[in-house]
Each structure stands twice: as C-alpha cells, then as structure tokens.
Amino acid sequence: MNNLSLAFNLLRQRLAFTATPVRHYAVKPAAAGAAGKKKKLGKLGPIMEKKVLPVETDANKLVSYVCGSNYMKTGEDIKLKPDAEYPDWLWTLNTERIVPLEELDPNSKQYWRRLRKMALRRNNQLSKLKKF
C-alpha cells in the first residue's frame, strides 16, 4: 500500500509539472463576411474613410449647368443663362490677385480694414517673440 501511494504521488507530480496551464481568453469575433470591412483604429478612434464623389464628365452638361450647385436629393443643378442676363458689375470683379495696400483708396472702408488686419498680424508676431 505504501508503494502504491508512493507511485501515485510520483505520477501526480510528473503530470503536474508537464501539464501547462491553459488560459481561456475571449475569442475575437470574425468579420461579418467578405463584404463587411473592418474599420481601422487610430489614436483617437476609428479613421474615417474617404468617400469617392462622382465627377461629371459630360461636356455639354459642364458647359450649360453649374455642376454641384444642387445639394438636395431631388431637383437639378442651376442652368447657366446668357451673359446679357447677368449684372454688369459681375464682370468687373477682381478674381486675379489681391490688391496691394498702396493701390487702395485711403478713404475707403476696405483700405482701413486691411490696415487694421495687417497691424493685428504684426502685433501678434511681435508678441510671439517675447520670452514671457
């Protein structure tokens, strides 16, 4: 009996040392089929995927409509009119460059707004140079 209990103890010790502990973690769920894409995670959460917007390629539509002007689900884009139906001041707008301060009239509101904006920018740049 003593030999039998000694044999069981030796067998139990060998089995205890050879058996590795098994950890049962929760299984990660598989993707919902091939159609469902897994969203990438960044530091601040899921990364937004860029949407591909359709581009108009029809030349006749590009010439006769303001493409992208209709943001509603129903309706159509604004149709372009002949140049004679638009006001004359529309064709005199400056679309090329910003007019320098020296070319502006000092009696205009635009001149003084630009001057104030330039002074604010200059003061902000100077305040950044201060140590404290």
TrEMBL record:
Keywords: Mitochondrion, Ribonucleoprotein, Ribosomal protein, Transit peptide. It is found in: Mitochondrion. One of its GO terms (cellular component) is mitochondrial large ribosomal subunit. One of its GO terms (molecular function) is structural constituent of ribosome. It comes from the Eukaryota. Pfam families: Ribosomal_L37 (PF08561). Belongs to the mitochondrion-specific ribosomal protein mL54 family. This is Large ribosomal subunit protein mL54. The gene is Dvir\GJ22436.
